[in-house]
From TrEMBL:
Name of the protein in question: MoxR-like ATPase
Enzyme Commission code(s) on record: 1.7.2.5
Entry's family note: Belongs to the CbbQ/NirQ/NorQ/GpvN family.
Species of the source: Chloracidobacterium thermophilum (strain B)
Source lineage: Bacteria, Pseudomonadati, Acidobacteriota, Terriglobia, Terriglobales
GO molecular function: ATP binding; ATP hydrolysis activity; nitric oxide reductase activity
Alphabetized UniProt keyword annotations: ATP-binding, Nucleotide-binding, Oxidoreductase
């Protein structure tokens, strides 16, 4: 009964706002129907998480999200026995919970997880679709509605942090990038609750800053940061200050680069 209630908080009641950029909704739907696990590739803050939320809502599945990090163990994902008073009580981990309830399970930034943790997901991501819960000596079979999704940012790729072929070749991969100009303007206007002309200025700044990629800037400014700038403007902060704290300062510590980005801001606004 505990798990019955535990899953309830993962159900999305309201439609998450998502503007499609290409045919990602059709692709994901086909993968879901074919019971294929999906990998979303792309830079941070470009809409991957929002897309998964939207798809979970479309399919009326609970969404269980796990932010991966290097200490994430197989036990964290599957579950553990915990001492409660005199008793030891089993607590499902997020993956077990998702499998049991035919949820959508989203592992965010999967490269951050340890390799031995990732091995655990292998039997779930091929046609066996099973999750061995060793501590309980049971093997759970994923129901048809269960969907496995991971996200991955190839920009951070290094020899140490790369997905092994044996893991990556278990997924179909949908590539994400920053949305095209007009779509990003609509997103920033909607999410930041600003008028279209303010959103246009912010997206123009975003596009110019993205051109600095490869010139010392590791990654361009995300849609998320443009939305933050819009929200600050909406809250009464001057556009230049909003861009300084939401765009210039977060993306680099390099003073020269910060100056170049600040110049972009002042020429556009
Ligand atoms: P990621 O998971 O790729 O790091 P998010 O999905 O969290 O990024 O996106 C960051 C923010 O950008 C979202 O909260 C949302 O406000 C906005 N966003 C980005 N792309 C879209 C889109 N296509 N439709 C609606 N909102 C979007």
């Amino acid at each position: 009964m505990l798990t019955e209630r535990a899953i309830e908080k993962y159900i999305l009641e309201k439609e998450p706002y998502y503007l499609p950029v290409g045919n990602e909704i059709e692709l994901f739907t086909a993968a879901y129907q074919a019971k294929l696990p999906v990998m979303l590739k792309g830079p941070t803050g470009c809409g991957k998480t929002r897309f998964v939320e939207h798809m979970a809502w479309r399919f009326k599945r609970p969404l269980v999200t796990v932010a991966c990090h290097e200490d994430l163990s197989a036990t964290d994902l599957v579950g553990r026995y915990l001492l409660e008073g005199e008793e030891t009580v089993w607590h499902d981990g997020p993956l077990t919970l998702a499998v049991k309830h035919g949820a959508m399970c989203y592992l965010d930034e999967v490269v951050e997880a340890r390799k031995d943790t990732l091995v655990l997901i292998h039997p779930l991501t091929d046609d066996r679709r099973i999750l061995p819960v060793e501590k309980r000596r049971v093997v759970l079979e994923a129901p048809d509605e269960f969907q496995f999704v991971i996200s991955y940012n190839p920009g951070y790729q290094s020899v140490l942090k790369d997905l092994k072929q044996s893991t990556r070749q278990r997924f179909v991969a949908i590539e994400f990038d920053y949305p095209p100009f007009d779509i990003e303007v609509a997103i920033v206007a909607h999410e930041g609750q600003v008028d279209e002309s303010t959103a246009r200025d912010l997206v123009t700044i975003g596009q110019k800053v993205r051109n600095l990629r490869g010139h010392g800037l590791e990654e361009g400014v995300s849609t998320r940061l443009l939305v933050y700038a819009a929200q600050l403007i909406r809250g009464g902060i001057s556009p230049v200050s909003a861009c300084t704290v939401a765009i210039v300062n977060p993306i680099t510590d390099d003073r020269d680069l910060q100056r170049s980005i600040q110049e972009i801001v002042t020429t556009v606004i």
